[in-house]
């Protein structure tokens, strides 16, 4: 009933906002469900009595030959054979929607007399098509690529097309290079690989030899290349057009679309996963938002330069590889576009939609932009090839204003023109020219003088100033993402000439950028900059600049993770609250179907329909999620490896996570998020927020009544806090790395005064699937250096990173094992290559943070960085920039120390090959570890009180039985890891519920690796399958021996 009412409301609203173009399309729209005719017909109207059997010559018992005379069958097959038209050479993958455009007032009349830009009483119908560039129609939506942003205005003076992108510049300056660029970016001709990405030799070879592309490459490798949604990206006209006003004055203009929701991007890891999990993510996202009534909106802005000022800049304003910095040419917002209708049929509307840069209306014209000049020819010619010469008669392309000319005939002609006259001039004066005074198009009287020659002017030969400006203007984490993206792409180039050439080119943009990428991809590491970096910045090039003024969760996808036994009242209250904020909620359960709340019998009672099951939709497809309360529900979640992976993955992608009641216990005990603080009392609705995790003990009717959705930092309600936390994460803590004031970090610095800190996950340092490699380096480090200390802890991570980056790491591991080459040499080698400084800061146990000093900011840069992010305003005084590597998903320094203590007493003579996630957490012996760290029940002592320096004490060779015991410990730990997906957790729900209001039940208890291990915990004991009783050899083959066969185990939590 509710869905019927909602559908009727949407239909009513759509009919009220229906535009002239929507009405025009109704003339060609047929609804088979409402037809009154008898049934199926041929294309020429003949009723078809049998559409399942071809006419054959047969005797009723044996089949015979099919007859060519069967016109019905031939028509059906022939129409099918020709259903596909040639796909676009570029921008083949796309989707579209209808909408409308309005200007706010006539403020633009000082630049143009075009009514579409000056008449606020008009509502101009629009059609918009978003697309990727490189891939074919079957490629994925979330690849790293430029996005097309093409808009068609159906004005009363004719169609006006802005054929733009989500990036304001382009790869080339002159259109004559367009075939070369497209050939280079497309899949390589010998094997048609790769699809939907630029990570291949030909593309990077081209841009490495075409330095004019440097600026565009910076944009494409930035987070702009992986937008979260079409609705959350800017649009740019790219080229320089002109406007002409009523005084016959001309202005150069660039067009901009500014999204209402702000500019968001994926995390790269997220984008990669969504490519496989939902290749149509962006298409569905646009349709879902419109169907939900959360209509996407963009402000329309212009930049204008008077003709007299054309040459007042140090760049050529007609160069499409350059932006017009807003400090020099401010944006003027003049209107707004709204998309409020999805297409009825994809092919005739979206696929046959055709755009041309040459389609303008009176008051808008062209400049001498050499890329635009070529596009004006190319786009029109392309549409003729794809759709035929009469492509503008197709319903989606035809104007809503009157059309009359003497064009005739051609393939697929639709229009029927009566009369004898098809030329001008004619004796009847039919369809003659329209004077400018009556609305005819006027070309600006431009003076042109020159010599015919093939040259580029001096300003067109400067290619790096704006590439530097863009890179300088990014936040530290945006720079890190760009470095990672360029490294990823170039690492897929297997021709050394290609990646060495481009790493040299990068040195013209930024020395540190070039050096880091060269180290990552094996390029030539520069020893000095090839070009001075001017150091200029502008805040308008960072995505943070475009955050909406008011926090919003409109159209955001919020998952509610449930199992049988959940709290139904909470879920209903949450869904109602988020609906009020126009967010969409999705129930994710153990199955697609009914999931039963507490008190209901599974399979018999009244349940809530789950939209997807745990395997059907991953956390990557949602913006945030919540775990409601319910003891049985929480216990079942804890027993499922996929749900644990769900939460950890979302936390790693910096998504807002909410939990209520026993859902908190699930987070704390099963998921284990180190450093996160949780609500202390499960009987209180007091909200606790920590690192994007929002928790409250309960959420009942009273809580719901008091929790009117108002997104703000000082709000008290759970939903309001959760929405605000999403907002903060989406913009200020976005996306996996973050810059924020030192005073907010949960650790105390000893000797270091830190200003800008970039959070990174340790998973960035270790490949998540290379367990044996990870363990080997760790184990060898123990033998060579003993316990980790403040002095050597980063050496270990640096060594591990160094090995991870080597293509022959197996050889290096064997060399280390058999020659005894000290690993610290490798760490020093890495330091020599990178030139970075390292330090360690650790908090009260069990937290650990590793500080990696990266660079220094000048006071001006620090000020501009703070201006971009208000949360950084208190930290802009200190010029040092650091990277904070947090081990939040793996282990603590104390837990790691315990593991080292237990393992450094022995050295197995074989290399373990069973899948392994470090560290192993062994219960400390009462006479050993308890002296240093207290008993398992007592609080851990501060790391500062321990002597963590110096090599381990020399030990006598262990006796045979001791070696066997140690080997058994090692084996059990590895087996524990191998079966970690099957581990079940007994949650301390009863204890939590009975806790007194002032008794904390949260806080960072003993912390574990991503693998549950047999260690004593406070209030929760992971249950792990026992190791099989099979003999463990005291001695095995040497490190170069054969690999042990991995044991089969259900690895559902490994993702």
TrEMBL record:
Matching Pfam families: Catalase, Catalase-rel, Catalase_C, Med6
PROSITE patterns tied to this protein: CATALASE_1, CATALASE_2, CATALASE_3
Protein name (record): Catalase
Biased segments, Polar residues type: 861-873, 932-943
Organism (species): Fibroporia radiculosa
Annotated segments matching region Disordered: 853-873, 914-961, 994-1055
Every Catalase core domain range: 41-432
Reported function: Catalyzes the degradation of hydrogen peroxide (H(2)O(2)) generated by peroxisomal oxidases to water and oxygen, thereby protecting cells from the toxic effects of hydrogen peroxide.
The keyword Iron is annotated on this UniProt entry: yes
Molecular function (Gene Ontology), one example: catalase activity
Record GO biological process: hydrogen peroxide catabolic process; regulation of transcription by RNA polymerase II; response to oxidative stress
EC code(s) of this entry: 1.11.1.6
Annotated catalysed reactions: 2 H2O2 = O2 + 2 H2O
Compositional bias annotation for Low complexity: 1010-1022
Family: Belongs to the Mediator complex subunit 6 family.
Cofactor: heme
Cell location: Nucleus
GO cellular component: cytosol; mediator complex
Alphabetical keyword list: Heme, Hydrogen peroxide, Iron, Metal-binding, Nucleus, Oxidoreductase, Peroxidase, Transcription, Transcription regulation
């Amino acid at each position: 009933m509710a869905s019927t009412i909602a559908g009727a409301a949407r239909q009513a609203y759509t009919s009220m906002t229906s535009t002239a173009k929507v009405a025009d399309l109704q003339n060609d729209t047929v609804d088979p469900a409402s037809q009154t005719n008898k049934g199926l017909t041929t294309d020429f109207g003949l009723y078809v009595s049998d559409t399942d059997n071809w006419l054959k010559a047969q005797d009723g018992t044996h089949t015979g030959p099919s007859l060519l005379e069967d016109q019905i069958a031939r028509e059906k097959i022939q129409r099918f054979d020709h259903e596909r038209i040639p796909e676009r050479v570029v921008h083949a993958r796309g989707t579209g929607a209808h909408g409308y455009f309005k200007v706010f007032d006539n403020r633009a009349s000082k630049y143009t007399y075009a009514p579409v830009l000056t008449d606020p009483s008009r509502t101009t119908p629009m059609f918009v098509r978003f697309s990727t560039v490189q891939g074919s129609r079957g490629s994925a939506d979330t690849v790293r690529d430029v996005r097309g942003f093409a808009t068609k205005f159906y004005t009363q003076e004719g169609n006006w097309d802005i054929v733009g992108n989500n990036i304001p510049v382009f790869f080339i300056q002159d259109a004559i290079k367009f075939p070369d660029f497209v050939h280079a970016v497309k899949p390589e001709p010998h094997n048609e690989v790769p699809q939907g990405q630029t990570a291949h030799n030909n593309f990077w070879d081209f841009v490495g030899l075409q330095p004019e592309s440097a600026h565009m490459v910076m944009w494409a490798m930035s987070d702009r290349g992986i937008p979260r949604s079409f609705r959350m990206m800017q649009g740019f006209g790219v080229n320089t057009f002109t406007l002409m006003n009523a005084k016959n004055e001309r202005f150069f203009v660039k067009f901009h679309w500014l999204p209402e929701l702000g500019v968001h991007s994926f995390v790269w890891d997220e984008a990669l996963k969504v490519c496989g999990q939902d290749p149509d993510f962006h298409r569905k996202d646009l349709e879902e938002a419109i169907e939900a009534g959360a209509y996407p909106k963009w402000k329309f802005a212009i930049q204008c330069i008077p003709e007299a000022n054309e040459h007042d800049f140090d760049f050529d304003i007609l160069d499409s590889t350059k932006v017009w910095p807003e400090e020099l040419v401010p944006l003027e917002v003049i209107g707004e576009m709204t998309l409020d209708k999805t297409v009825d049929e994809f092919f005739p509307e979206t696929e046959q939609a055709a755009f041309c840069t040459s389609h303008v209306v009176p008051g808008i014209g062209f400049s001498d932009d050499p890329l635009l000049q070529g596009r004006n020819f190319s786009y029109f010619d392309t549409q003729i090839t794809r759709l035929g010469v009469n492509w503008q008669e197709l319903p989606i392309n035809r104007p809503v204003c009157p059309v009359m000319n003497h064009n005739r005939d051609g393939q697929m002609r639709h229009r029927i023109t009566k009369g004898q006259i098809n030329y001008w001039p004619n004796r009847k004066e039919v369809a003659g020219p329209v004077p400018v005074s009556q609305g005819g198009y006027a070309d600006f009287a431009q003076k042109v003088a020159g010599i015919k020659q093939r040259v580029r002017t001096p300003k067109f030969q400067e290619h790096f100033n704006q590439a530097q400006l863009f890179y300088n203007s990014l936040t530290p984490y945006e720079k890190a993402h760009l470095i990672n993206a360029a490294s990823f792409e170039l690492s897929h180039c297997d021709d050394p000439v290609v990646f060495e050439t481009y790493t040299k080119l990068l040195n013209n943009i930024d020395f540190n950028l070039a050096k880091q990428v060269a180290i990552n991809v094996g390029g030539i590491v520069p020893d000095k900059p090839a070009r001075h970096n001017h150091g200029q910045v502008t805040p308008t090039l960072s995505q943070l600049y475009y955050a909406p003024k008011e926090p919003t969760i409109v159209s955001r996808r919020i998952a509610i993770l449930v199992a049988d036994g959940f709290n139904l009242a909470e879920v209903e209250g949450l869904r109602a609250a988020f609906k009020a904020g126009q967010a969409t909620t999705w129930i994710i359960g153990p199955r697609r179907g009914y999931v039963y709340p507490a008190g209901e019998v599974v399979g018999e009672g009244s349940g809530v329909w789950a939209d997807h099951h745990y395997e059907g939709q991953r956390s990557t497809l949602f913006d945030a999620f919540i775990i409601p309360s319910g003891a049985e529900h929480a216990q079942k979640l804890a027993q499922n490896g996929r749900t644990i992976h769900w939460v950890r993955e979302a936390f790693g992608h910096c998504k807002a996570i909410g939990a209520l009641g026993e859902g908190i216990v699930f987070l704390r005990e099963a998921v284990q998020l180190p450093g996160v603080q949780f609500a202390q009392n499960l009987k209180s609705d007091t909200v606790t927020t920590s690192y994007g995790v929002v928790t409250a003990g309960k959420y009942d009717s009273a809580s719901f009544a008091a929790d009117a959705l108002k997104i703000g930092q000082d709000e008290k309600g759970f939903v309001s806090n959760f929405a605000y936390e999403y907002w903060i994460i989406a913009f200020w803590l976005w996306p996996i790395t973050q810059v924020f004031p030192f005073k907010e970090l949960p650790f105390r610095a000893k000797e270091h005064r830190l200003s800008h800190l970039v959070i990174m996950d340790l998973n960035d340092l270790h490949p998540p699937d290379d367990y044996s490699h990870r363990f080997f380096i760790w184990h060898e480090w123990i033998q060579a250096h003993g316990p980790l200390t403040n002095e050597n802890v980063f050496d270990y991570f640096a060594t591990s990173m160094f090995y991870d980056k080597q293509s022959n790491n197996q050889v290096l591991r064997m060399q280390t094992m058999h020659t005894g080459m000290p690993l610290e040499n490798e760490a020093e080698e890495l330091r020599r290559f990178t030139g970075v400084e390292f330090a360690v800061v650790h908090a009260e146990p069990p937290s650990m943070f590793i500080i990696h000093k990266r660079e220094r900011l000048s006071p001006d840069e620090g000020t501009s960085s703070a201006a971009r992010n208000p949360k950084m305003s208190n930290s802009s005084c200190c010029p040092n920039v650091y990277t904070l590597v947090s081990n939040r998903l793996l282990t603590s320094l104390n837990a790691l120390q315990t593991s080292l203590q237990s393992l450094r007493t022995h050295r197995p003579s074989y290399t373990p090959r069973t899948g392994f996630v470090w560290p192993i957490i062994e219960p400390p012996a009462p006479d050993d570890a308890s002296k240093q760290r207290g008993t398992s029940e007592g609080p851990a002592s501060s790391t500062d009180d321990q002597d963590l320096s110096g090599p381990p004490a020399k030990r006598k060779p262990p006796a045979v039985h001791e070696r066997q015991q140690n080997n058994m410990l090692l084996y059990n730990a590895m087996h524990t890891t191998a079966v970690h997906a099957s581990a079940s957790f007994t949650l301390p729900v009863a204890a939590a519920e009975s806790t007194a209001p002032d008794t904390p039940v949260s806080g960072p208890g003993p912390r574990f690796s991503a693998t549950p291990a047999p260690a004593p915990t406070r209030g929760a004991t992971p249950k792990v399958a026992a190791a099989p009783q099979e003999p463990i050899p005291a001695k095995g083959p040497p490190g170069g021996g054969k690999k042990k066969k991995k044991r089969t185990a259900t690895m559902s939590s490994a993702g």
